[in-house]
Write a structure and sequence with these properties.
The complex is a heterodimer of chains A (about 160) and B (about 80). With about 160 residues, chain A is an alpha+beta fold. Chain A has helices spanning about 15-25, 55-70, 105-120, 140-160; strands at about 5-10, 30-35, 45-55, 75-85, 85-90, 90-100, 125-130, 130-135. In chain B, strands 2-1-5-3-4 form a five-stranded mixed sheet. Classes of the chains: A alpha+beta (about 160), B alpha+beta (about 80). The interface between A and B is medium-sized, with 28 and 19 residues.
Chain lengths: ~160, ~80
């Protein structure tokens, strides 16, 4: 689908360029973009991280998440970019951009895609710190963030 | 033959990213995991984690999902992208 752009690669991306592509359509009155960055750790010094993925599955998992978002909200163009390989502190990791006629659908769609990407897309982070290398453990808060959309869907259906 | 892939910490701990399983007679992902656990105490331990996720032909599935010859099965820890 030309309205959906999904990329998984080592190279960096330009948020301005991605925003302009999403915004370039008179049907859209709102564009929400999210950019995830490599941040420092609370304990120990992070030097870099390596993003591993399951190449045969990654793109279709992301596409399925975007399609699910499209069934829930009236959203238009969507872009999802996820980098893989070695990334250093403050580098961009992930970009999610959603264009829509109105802001509510764009905000909700972007948040939904990020929450499901974190629990269903096959990526794994390994942190390289001054204390050694560690695989990142999943956060309960991420599972809860994805879970709440089940309840949200239930509520919105009830409200018709 | 079933091609089984491992990722991230599971791949590192098992010391292998891919195995071909020829002698599988079970029917589900849970059966396949149990079959792989017979290989050694190490595999027994590493694959006993409750939180091992599975994908059959690149689709995330539950452990009760069916597995057949010719499919690609991936086993991996909970995902941590984003």
């Amino acid at each position: 689908m030309q309205d959906v752009k999904i990329r998984v690669h080592e190279a960096n991306f330009d948020v301005g360029e991605e925003y302009r592509r999403l915004a370039d359509d008179p049907r859209y009155g709102a564009v929400v973009t999210f950019t995830g960055l490599v941040r420092e750790l609370e304990a120990g010094r992070l030097e870099a991280m390596t993003l591993e993925h399951y190449p045969a599955m990654t793109k279709q998992a992301l596409a399925a998440i975007v399609q699910e978002a499209k069934t829930r909200w009236p959203i238009g163009r969507v872009t999802v970019i996820h980098r893989v390989g070695r990334l250093t502190l403050n580098e961009q990791i992930v970009f999610v951009g959603v264009a829509s006629a109105h802001r509510n659908a764009a905000f909700a769609g972007a948040e939904f895609i990020m929450d499901f990407l974190k629990t269903r897309a096959p990526f794994w982070k390994k942190e390289h710190t001054d204390q050694g290398d560690y695989w990142v453990a999943t956060k309960t808060s991420d599972a809860q963030a994805a879970q709440r959309w089940q309840e949200h869907n239930h509520i919105t259906k009830k409200q018709g | 033959m079933i091609k089984v892939l491992f990722f991230a910490v599971l791949r590192e701990r098992l010391g292998i990213g891919e195995v071909d399983v020829h002698d599988f007679t079970g029917s589900t992902v849970a059966d396949l995991i149990e079959h792989l656990q017979q290989r050694s105490p190490k595999w027994q331990e590493e694959l006993s984690q409750q939180d091992v996720l599975a994908a059959v032909n690149q689709q995330l599935v539950s452990h009760s999902h069916a597995v057949e010859a010719g499919q690609e099965v991936a086993l991996f820890p909970p995902v941590t992208g984003g």
